[in-house]
């Protein structure tokens, strides 16, 4: 599973709870994209979540 390279946001696990209160497994996936990013060493592909992209924590190549 992909994880954000900046804030390390990843998938979260929990339960679906039905009306009768039966539980089944559930996963919430983070909105993580593969993006080309400018770094000191040049251009690199990294997994970045959309909230970090929107907040300008990285500069796109």
Outline:
The chain is mainly β.
Explain the overall architecture.
With 61 residues, this protein is mainly β. The chain has one domain. It is 8% helix and 46% strand. The chain contains 1 helix and 4 strands. A two-stranded antiparallel sheet has the order 1-2. It has a two-stranded antiparallel ribbon with strand order 3-4. A hairpin with a 2-residue loop joins strand 3 (32-39) and strand 4 (42-49). The longest helix is centred in the C-terminal third of the chain and has 5 residues, at 50-54. The model has no long low-confidence stretch (mean pLDDT 95).
How much of the sequence is in beta strands? over 45%
The total count of strands amounts to 4
Largest sheet: 2 strands, antiparallel
What is the distance, rounded to the nearest whole angstrom, between the alpha carbons of the first and last residues?
A: 24 Å
The overall pLDDT, averaged over residues, is: 95
By helix and strand content, what is the structural category?
A: mainly beta
Q: Output the strand order for the largest sheet.
A: 1-2
Low-confidence regions: none
Gyration radius over CA: 16 Å
Count of helical segments? 1
| General shape | elongated
Name the helicity range.
Answer: under 10%
* Total count of domains: 1
GO molecular function: structural constituent of ribosome
GO cellular component, one term: ribosome
InterPro entries: Bacterial_rp_bL28, Ribosomal_bL28, Ribosomal_bL28/bL31-like_sf, Ribosomal_bL28_bact-type, Ribosomal_bL28_sf
Protein name: Large ribosomal subunit protein bL28
């Amino acid at each position: 599973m992909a994880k954000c390279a900046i804030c390390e946001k990843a998938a979260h696990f929990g339960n679906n709870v039905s009306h009768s209160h039966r539980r089944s497994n559930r996963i919430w996936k983070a909105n993580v994209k593969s993006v080309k990013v400018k770094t000191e060493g040049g251009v690199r592909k990294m997994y970045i979540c959309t909230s970090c992209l929107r907040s300008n924590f990285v500069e796109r190549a």
